[in-house]
Amino acid sequence: MTWAGLIIALVGALxxxxxxxxxxxxxxxxxxxxxxxxxxxxxxxxxxxxTGACLHAxxxxxxxxxxxxxxxxxxxxxxxxxxxxxxxxRPYRAEILGxxxxxxxxxxxxxLVPEHNVTPRLSSGAALGFxxxxxLIVLVTQLIATRVHGPNKxxxxxxxxxxxxxxxxxxxxxxxxxxxxxxxxxxxxxTLAVPVLLVCAVVLLQRSYAVxxxxxxxxxxxxxxxxxxxxxxxxxxxxxxxxxxxTAIPALLASALTI
Length: 259
Known about the structure:
Blueprint lengths: L1 H29 L9 H23 L2 H9 L1 H12 L6 H20 L11 H22 L4 H30 L9 H22 L3 H23 L8 H14 L1
Helix pairs in contact: 1-2, 1-3, 1-4, 1-8, 3-5, 4-5, 4-9, 5-9, 5-10, 6-7, 7-8, 7-9, 8-9
Keywords: Membrane, Transmembrane, Transmembrane helix
Protein name: DMT family transporter
InterPro entries: EmrE-like
């Protein structure tokens, strides 16, 4: 079943990359506004991306996370060339090399994170504090982004989108991992926080895409999302991080490669 999961994850990664490239093309043309909902291509991109995300969830039910997650991160290598193709040009060498470096660095870093079987627990106070920190990061990046232009603006906006996307993953992890077969545990405000944060993430993603530097925006999200998720898991949910020299040093090297 592991190979089936890996194949499904690869198809899902391709779908997510195609969806992101399509939505970025429309976001640049129309801006991050409600006009996007009238664009057929934007909806097609959203449906394809959502399908890719669903396939990723299916893959996780068939194969271990440490095998599926690296394939998911590889969407960066697919998405940047696709976006360049849509604009009728070949991807620049810097885009290709940068995408590969980020993907390899993240895969390396994710594989060094220890496995765990801890049931996630998060108090309401800690959750509210987490949301406040995420909101502060978004506010600061949005304010600074209004004063810069070009790739710097795309990068700042992608940081905000990445941390919110990570917050969605964190709450999904708490809600899904904490159910343990008890559907009554879904009756919690954490469950309602997931769609609200998801909508915020989509809006912030479109704003970062609309700047026009898709490679930078997409890479920024792909870097910030998993790193924020791992930190949230370690600080809030008690999940382990690499601490021994045999794993900590490679983790630092992987982080340097990613940056």
